[in-house]
Amino acid sequence: MGFFSRIKKIWTKEEQAAAAETTAAAATAAASGAAAHAGPIPPVSPASPLSPVPPVQPVTQSGPDGAAPPDALAAELGLALRQAEPRLSVWLAIILSGVDAVSPLLWERLRFLLASLEVPEAEAGAFIDAFAKWLAMMEYTEVEEFRGELQYRLALALDLEDEEDERSRLLLKLSQGLAKTKELVAKRLDHLLASHGAIDAAFWEELEEILLTADIGHAPAAKLLERLKTRARKEGVVDPARFKDFLAAELTDILAPKKAIKAVNPPEVVLVVGVNGVGKTTTIAKLAHRARMGGKKVLIAAGDTFRAAAIEQLAIWAERAGCGFYAKGANADPAAVAYEALALALAEHYDILFVDTAGRLHTKTNLMEELKKIERVLAKKHPGAPHRTILVLDATTGQNALSQTKIFNQAVGLDEIVMTKLDGTAKGGVIVGIALEYGVPITFVGLGEKMEDLRPFNGADFARALVN
Q1: How many CB atoms lie within 10 A of CB 203?
Q2: Which pLDDT belongs to residue 33?
Q3: Paired residues of 298 in beta bridges
């Protein structure tokens, strides 16, 4: 369930046709809960649930920035929305038409869209309040600066992230993120296919060299080759022209998500581990942001108490994500931070707790012992915790990411991996290597610095983006 408690179904073509004659009247009625917000958006506390915005007064004259009166605006926008293709990006384009910057008109249009989707007025106001506060914090004023973030938030809040249009947007970003890896691999792969008349021993030998250049790793590359050979024999494939589709299908199978039990007794406790410099702090913030937009009350605990400025950085990110934050101070015992944060999460009925951890070099044994201690105290306070342990890896490190996975997995047992900086590396093949060697699922990939740039990992999309 998303940020909103209920949502009208996406309009079908049949509904569009049936509603054409009554759209103007229906939209006018809907607009009564979506009148223009004449004043500044009141701030909300990031450490507490969002409160409803105060009711706004109806506008009887021209709207802000010379907009049409509300009744005429409602009729025009309502008709345009109902006749449009039912996609979030299309709806957003209609709502933002003629809106170039933050203004009362922007809030009026957003309220209208949410009212048209039958989002309760209080929840719509809370969503807009949170977004307005984030805009002020980031000092964004132009629509083009925050349009992507707005669409991302709406997709999460409305449970539309799997909608076709949003999936297409993700596939495009993933393809762009893999550009360097594709540039390295694609040319050699195309040359391989063009220079061989059949899939033979020489073909497999040259393919192995290509896989190694993508940092899949020696052992994983050997496993992949064996799987490909077995598949080729079973399906009788000998034509190189079919190999790309063949390879994509195998990669999709390797990267397919594994079934896991999702139900937990709240709060869900998520332990986040990883070495310094991989983007762990920003990843926690982005994961927390996703959970917040999914309607959850989120607390972040600053368990990385040794790195300079780590607590301050995480506090800033927690505020940006609109989450609660708990810290004890520099050099405090990380296990004590985790324990006390969990006590707070239980007492104040948080839905999910993210626990940051230290990230000194993964070769330091004391770091692993410290992580085991955190696990023990969490389990003592809340049986079953941590419910998920996530390793954050930097894709640009290539083979080093494989060794980090091995050591952290041996120490604390990994449930998921988040791969960051995929947009800046030619070593994206390490994702395949990790899946083959350790079987730990990749759940998210980082494709940039913005909140919207942490996206769910889809093995089929990754295979398509890499091979095609």
Answers
A1: 19
A2: 37
A3: 352
